[in-house]
Amino acid sequence: MAYVASNILKSDSKKRKVEVIITKGLPDRKRSRIEAKCKRKAALLSLLRGKQVLEKEKEINEDDSVKNKKGKNNVLVNCLPDFMSGENKDSVVSNIKALAKMQQETLVHMKKRQGTPELLLKFPALDISETSTDLYSKSEVSPPLFLTDLQQLLLYATIGPAASFKPRWCQLKNSNKVSSTFLIVLKSVSLADFRKHKECFPNLIKHFKQAVEMISPTQFGNTAEEEFFRVPVSVNHLWKLGVTRSKGKQLMAQSLKKERDVHPVKYAGPDAFPRTLLLLNPLQLAQENYPLPVKTENDCYKEYVFSQDTYEKVTDQSPLFGLDCEMCKTADGKNSVTRVSLVNEKMETVYDTLVKPKYKIIDYVFQFSGITPKMMEPVTTTLQDVQHKIKSLLPKDAILCGQSLNFDLDSLKMFHPYVIDTSTIYNLSGFKNKKVGLKRLTSHFLGKEIQCGNQGHSSVEDASASIQLVLLKLKHSLEFGDLALYSGPLIDCDWKIPREISSESYAIHGNRKYFFNAGEKSIYRSFFEILTENEKKSLMIDREVVTHFYENEPMILESKTTDVEAVATAQKSLYNNDFTWLQLNGFHEILHTSPDTHGIKDCFCMLDSQVGKLLESMFSKMMVAVLLTGRNSDKYECENAMTLVKIT
């Protein structure tokens, strides 16, 4: 029989009531559970009460450390209920001591962690150790990263939550504890150079444990500084980044005027604003993991094809097509496309076909795909057949619409430059990175129910819903259906519409220029202006041929003629700035002299030595990144970039 006895423990500040359950005649398992619960409650109470008593006894016995130590044990014992047996008391006291020790260790560890910034990669890093023979993990492959990914990390490390985006490729804990950021750029040095001449970079290997491959900006006709110092923002995200409504409308008007000047077609029809303003820009395509026609060391896109042989420039008159795919799990461990549907603006199904995967289907995932074994028995259409058909159906300036269309294009193994993603143009949560499913969007805005019942999804239905959502937004405004556009403090700021990348650049030959030439699709902010707004100091150390482009920027400029002078200046300025850009041009300058292998190795050793001197001079809690920019090795090939990053 069980009964409850209550004991009131008195304190100077308040009374606490402890219920102690004493068991007799209960089954062993039930009794042990009750006793354990009793011990936990008693231990918790003792810790809470003991903390107050310890503080008082510490004041009394501050000159007698031994007595004070004994006092702690007495406090723990005296806090226990008087009616507990001696054996139980000993057990509880032992537990209390262990808990107190664990609590103290945890507090010390937490305090230490809270004061130190920590960088954790979300993607597999390159193995840059001296003993490694392959930079890549055999089990994991990192998705393509761009220089804007590094830009976002350093911006977030410098100004914290005031940055528009958190880096997608890593997690920075305690960003407010980062003392300053420092970027060292080795111009024209590539990942391939590092891999081939690893013995020339002992300081990089010694000081850095984390490194990632990045797409060299030379692949799309930019330099590292041009790519890094422009912070891209799509026009439809102006309000998300805190721009005043009047400023946003002014910029929209400017973009519309520019569009009409370039394409003097009378703007008419149901659209309330140009549909090109909803297109994902290059940064957003990368952030949303869309397949992009870039060259990587692991050649992850070697089987992908363009959606057109040639493209035309997108305009506000370009046609919209809804695209959706259904997937099944196949023997290669991946989700393979088994149905493809394409719908035009008139809600006409222009293409709908089942697709036979390359590998055997092991799970039809019927509740989602709606695909059955019987449906797939007569199918002979291959993925290559679908790719050719889509090429023949789409106009050269077609805009594809869909919900998280990156998964569909990835399964189709196709590149397409003009995309409107309904998961990014609608937002019901008010949070920038929280997406809402197509089913809920369709129900909320179109008043229709899709993906109902137990017969799986219909790709025709989903494609139609996506294009209807896009058309609905085009009838209203950029803000329509996007609660996040109203979040954040409103400030006024200067924005820049960039020059177009020259289509003649050999680095962006063929169709690739349509993916990276964002002049029509985006506006940019200056990296230095953002830092200045947040009261951060900036320093740029480079050759005069680079610094003269930034004379009007709000920062300190130092033009140096040699790398030795540049490094010396950087060492003197370590404590004076929140962000420092240092570009070493030694290797870039000797490339024009066609150096032999010995000359190349000497140059790499010199660069590594200079970087080593800087790293030895840096103080605690600095975020340091070393960027190997990569370069074009011939007319069409590109050697990619590599970024090494650490917190000192």
UniProtKB/TrEMBL annotation:
Gene3D superfamilies (UniProt xref): Ribonuclease H-like superfamily/Ribonuclease H (3.30.420.10)
Keywords noted in UniProt: Exonuclease, Hydrolase, Nuclease, Nucleus
EC number, as in UniProt: 3.1.-.-
GO CC terms, sorted: nucleus
Family (UniProt): Belongs to the REXO1/REXO3 family.
Domain spans labelled Exonuclease: 319-479
Taxonomic superkingdom: Eukaryota
Subcellular localization: Nucleus
Name of the molecule in the record: REX1
Pfam families: RNase_T
Upper lineage: Eukaryota, Metazoa, Spiralia, Lophotrochozoa, Mollusca
One Gene Ontology term of the molecular function aspect: exonuclease activity
